[in-house]
Amino acid sequence: MPPVDLKLVKDVVESLRSGQNPVIVGERWADFQVDPNKFEADREDVVFRPLIDIMKAVANAATVALGGNKLRCTYESNPNAVPASESRDNLTRPDGWIIRMGSKSSGKESHWMDMAATGEFKKEDLEPKVTDNNNEMLWSLQHCMVDDARRRFAFGFTIENTSMRLWWCNRELVVVSNPFNFVLDHLNFVRFILGMLFSSETELGWDPTMTL
Question: For residues 104, 83, 53 and 103, what is the CA-based torsion angle, rounded to 10 degrees?
């Protein structure tokens, strides 16, 4: 994962616990006071929609802590939209993605070439759901790599109920982290999100010596 200052991570988590409308209440995210598999809604895009506001809050708290806006990426979730592709004509669409700001996707349809990380979500953590997420993530990672010759590596994240895993691949191998509880383990979650939102293009896998 891209390097992130641990003090910044702790400061952001502390900020999210404070204020009139804290994002963390008790030991949990305010919007996940019950686990995803206990939500009444069945659709993953509804169950995990709170991630949009949580990641915005993380970005805002970090911007304040850093003394200025150094945001380089943003999180989007629209599983009904098909991202544009330079090399493939298919209906593949991740559940969520972290995408470069100021790129060809800025203000337009999202593009595979601009995705720093893709996300796949399942409400349940049953084995068939985990397998589905694995297959979908592997497809998304290779899609990012195939679509952009400048990519040296790409990131991803999968969630099944509360279990979150981080993914990394280059053009030879795929690495997956041990799972952690994204609802309770705020330090690991925030560290990953800060690494994705504030890191340079080089740290996120693009080769600055190449142009298309």
Answer: -10
Q: Render the burial of 140-156: b for 16+ CB within 10 Å, e for the rest.
A: bbebbbebbeebebbbb
**Given this model, what pLDDT does residue 94 score?**
92
C-alpha closest to that of 4 among 208, 151, 200, 169: 200
Whole-number pLDDT of residue 91: 66
What tens digit of pLDDT does each residue of 59-111 get?
999 999 999 888 999 999 987 777 777 666 666 789 999 999 876 655 567 88
3-state SS class at 102: coil
- CATH number for domain 6-76+87-198, candidates 3.30.70, 3.90.1570, 1.10.150, 3.30.110: 3.90.1570
Q: Which two tokens stand for residue 82?
A: 């098909």
Q: Answer with the residue of higher pLDDT: 6 or 83.
A: 6
Q: Which of 159, 169, 154, 204 is nearest to 35 (CA)?
A: 159
Radius of gyration of the chain from its Cα atoms, rounded to whole angstroms: 17
Cα–Cα distance, 64 to 71 (Å, whole number): 11
Q: Quick one: the chain helix, strand, coil %, rounded to 5?
A: 35, 20, 40
Q: Residue 135 — pLDDT band, cuts 50, 70, 90? A: very high
